[in-house]
Amino acid sequence: MTTDIDLNCDMGESYGRWTLGADEEIMPFITSASVACGFHGGDPHVMRETVRLALEHNVAIGSHPSLPDLMGFGRRVMDVSPQELKDYVCYQTGALREFVRAAGNDLQHVKAHGVLYNMLEKDDALVRAIAEATRDSGGELIMMALASGKCDAQARKMGLRVASEGFADRAYNADGTLLSRKLKGSLIEDPRRAAAQAVLMATEGRVPTMDGQQIAISVQTICCHGDTPGAPTIVRAVREALEKAGCRVRALREWLPAGEKSLHQKPQQN
Fold first, then answer.
1. For strand 214-216 and strand 206-208, is the pairing parallel, antiparallel, or unpaired?
2. Which of 125, 138, 185, 227 counts the highest number of beta carbons within 10 A?
3. Are 92 and 66 spatial neighbours (Cβ–Cβ below 8 Å)?
4. Taking the model in full, what pTM does it have?
5. Domains identified in the chain, total number
6. Would you say the C-alpha torsion 252, 257, 263, 268 has a positive or negative sign?
7. How far apart are CA 117 and CA 104, in angstroms?
């Protein structure tokens, strides 16, 4: 049985005179790009160019909204209300969507960035806020969420089209959360190890943890970070290993089922 899997990477995080990541080297090997929208990285010019580059390589595009923390690269906890988060997500996703539409395409997904991604695992109200913002954007947008996490489960209950995400270049705790970036060993910089972890997740539904065990995990998309040292080599190794293992690597929009209808969804207008 062939396994479908999406390979995504965070893109477009440069801004102004500051360059981050190796987007041009990475883009040919991924199937989905989560593009920064200006709050933690990215600017209008970078967003436009990243959209162009993604479409050139037939890569699906999603927004990568962050807390408004440009100096901290979106990795510092902030006290935000659910309504504030909805506004942030709507603002950022809308800005990127216009660049995508101007290029004759549309968005595939929404994926929270940085500390916001982690905050969603601890705050049900924030999950509801980002899920509602994603749903209200229309077009059956997919929401990426930590595989086996609380955000993933709650968004599915709300009827969203959710893609469970695993990470090839990050170490896992025994509870399925990611090891803090503040701790040694949180990043997997060895391409062979990252590739092996990706294949294990995609084909066997398991992932190794820092305590030497393996836990069950179900993923539809696998992420490699664009700012991990050696990212282009890691991404290429992951892509090649997945294909060698018999996986069909393609964008989520091509195969992920639609979300379930939910009482929380807005009724369609006649």
1. antiparallel
2. 227
3. yes
4. 0.93
5. 1
6. positive
7. 29
